[in-house]
């Protein structure tokens, strides 16, 4: 499993704060996977993302992109921010222009992409995310879910190799969440490595193929969803819930679970129930 981004013993404190937001953090983001980063409020997930795009620099330790330590030179940071896209939890922090079209084209102009190419790429990404009819609508007229899509479009249009998403489904309704997850799967199938910070253990369990758990600025667990959610006690002590599907799975008669792996989504669970109660 090759590593795209790595932190080696990274520590960082915000100027106004006494506590370390990151405390000798050691973790790796595997290339090509869908990784979920879980952890209670304040465990350091967003701070890690800001380190990954070089907005903050470690007070000690190193951040490595493709096995090379970041030097934080201007040219390198410019390239890094094209390779690593960050979608903030709150789209208001990200959307600075008046309309989705202006916002999506802004990053391309900064990257000195030729004008015909800008138009082509902006129109394509707005279409992909179902935003074409809103391209010239003032952003303050959009719903939160639509703003989240615009923020995602503005990052995706730059064709990053690694996409970091901070709580992308927070405050979305079930249908919008489902649509976003489907879109993320399409993005992943194009070869983009995805990392999602989330509090939603049901989503982490069904969506991710690799999970990192953070606590007090450290990575305290890593593994596949099956490995991570096996240890309910450890998760509880970290303030994280067990996915509902696993509780339901445990409630099934033992004989029906023998030799079958626990379902990762509702549709697999329903199929299993139909077999059990046939
Ligand atoms: N701008 C800031 N100024 C001072 N302290 C901050 C700032 N941003 C974060 N912190 C502190 O750094 C620590 C890590 O915060 P961070 O936002 O990275 O956690 P998180 O895991 O993303 O939390 P959440 O799940 O609530 O988004 C917390 O103790 C937080 O209070």
UniProtKB/TrEMBL annotation:
Chief localisation class: membrane
Localization: Cell membrane
Keyword match Membrane: yes
InterPro entries: AAA+_ATPase, ABC_transporter-like_ATP-bd, ABC_transporter-like_CS, ABC_transpr_CbiO/EcfA_su, ECF_ABC_transporter_ATP-bd, P-loop_NTPase
Record domain ABC transporter: where: 5-241
Topology of the protein relative to the lipid bilayer: Peripheral membrane protein
Gene3D superfamilies according to UniProt: P-loop containing nucleotide triphosphate hydrolases
Coiled-coil region(s): none
A single GO molecular function term of this UniProt record: ATP binding
Keyword Cytoplasm: no
Alphabetical list of PROSITE patterns matching this protein: ABC_TRANSPORTER_1 (PS00211), ABC_TRANSPORTER_2 (PS50893)
Keyword field: ATP-binding, Cell membrane, Membrane, Nucleotide-binding, Translocase, Transport
Family indicated by similarity: Belongs to the ABC transporter superfamily.
Official protein name in the record: Energy-coupling factor ABC transporter ATP-binding protein
Organism of origin: Paenibacillus alginolyticus
